[in-house]
Every structure is written in structure tokens, then in C-alpha cells.
Design a protein that fits this description.
Layout (H helix, E strand, L loop, with lengths): L20 E6 L3 E7 L6 E8 L9 H12 L4 E6 L9 H17 L4 E5 L3 H11 L8 H23 L17
Length: 178
């Protein structure tokens, strides 16, 4: 019997409220990383982390992502889940899912979510090309831009799914705080 395939998560379910989010684009060679502002409006690139051959909880790539999550005081981590245009998952999705599970164990209780990332690398490369950046030799920049695309998509969907004051982690703003 085959194991059940986990699909992408949706923003709004168990939303942790206001705070920075970190997104990662897991590749076979590099991991692109992006973060949001505390209000969850804008995603920006952070860095590109080299993938490690090690696969344990102390692997250098996992340790670096843990450090970034801590440094940015992230309330949620979004991992891109690569799927085909038909919504099917292949080898890359398995790699991303396995990485997300390892990361979840390492950053608990911070939630790690999977987000549909169809065409994010293609979109990121096109956007960089249109802004005058040559793709040749710029793979690390493309990986960061793909993480930005993943996170911005999550933030945009979250803004439609969660209204201010609705999420379990939001605290009401009093007039004196404005």
C-alpha cells in the first residue's frame, strides 16, 4: 500500500497571527530563502543556503535555516511544494516534503507549511531577466527570487483568508496603540 501524498496547505488554517514568515525553495543544490515584514505584506529575499549531503537533524542546511527562522523570529515557515501543472507530485515534491518534515521537527512549535509552487522558478527567472539580470551564473539569485514568489503568493492568499483580528495569534489593537 502506497503512503498518502501530502498536498499543499492553505493560509488561514491555524494561522499564528501577526509576525514574520520565512519561505524556502528547496532545490537539489541550493535552498532559496525569503522573509516577510511583521505585518505579512511584502516578501523579500534573504539568502541562498547550499544543500548539504547530510540528511540528519544536524545537517548544515537545516541548521542554517533554523538560525534564519530564529534570527527573523518567524511565526511560520512556508516550504514550496513543486507540483506538475496537473497537480501531481514527483521526485522534487518528495525532496521538499522530506525537508519540510525534518525542518518541522527542528523548529517546533513553529508551524512548517507546504505551499503550491508551480512555476515559481520560471516566474522568478523571467522577472529577473526582465529587470536586466542575466540568468547565467545567477542561480543563487533565482533561488531567492523563487522563495520570494512562494512567500508573496502565501501572503496574498493569507490576506484574503484571514481578516485582522480573526487569527488565533492576533491580539486586538486598542485605540491607544494606534
Amino acid at each position: 500500500m502506497a503512503a498518502a501524498v501530502q498536498g499543499p496547505d492553505r493560509p488561514g488554517v491555524d494561522d499564528p497571527g501577526r509576525g514574520r514568515r520565512v519561505a524556502i525553495d528547496v532545490g537539489s543544490v541550493r535552498i532559496g530563502v525569503a522573509s516577510s515584514d511583521p505585518d505579512g505584506i511584502l516578501a523579500t529575499p534573504v539568502e541562498t543556503v547550499p544543500r548539504s549531503k547530510e540528511r540528519g537533524p544536524d545537517a548544515p542546511d537545516i541548521r542554517r535555516i533554523i538560525d534564519i527562522v530564529s534570527e527573523y523570529e518567524a511565526v511560520e515557515v512556508i516550504v514550496g511544494l513543486p507540483q506538475t501543472l496537473r497537480g501531481e507530485q514527483g521526485k522534487a515534491a518528495g525532496i521538499a516534503t522530506a525537508f519540510a518534515k525534518r525542518l518541522q521537527r527542528a523548529v517546533e512549535p513553529i508551524p512548517v507549511r507546504l505551499s503550491d509552487e508551480r512555476l515559481t522558478t520560471v516566474t522568478a527567472a523571467r522577472n529577473l531577466r526582465e529587470s536586466g539580470v542575466k540568468a547565467r551564473g545567477q542561480r543563487p539569485m533565482i533561488d531567492q527570487a523563487a522563495a520570494v514568489e512562494i512567500l508573496q503568493g502565501w501572503l496574498d492568499e493569507r490576506s484574503r483568508a484571514v481578516k485582522p483580528g480573526e487569527s488565533s495569534g492576533d491580539t486586538p489593537v486598542s485605540e491607544s496603540d494606534r
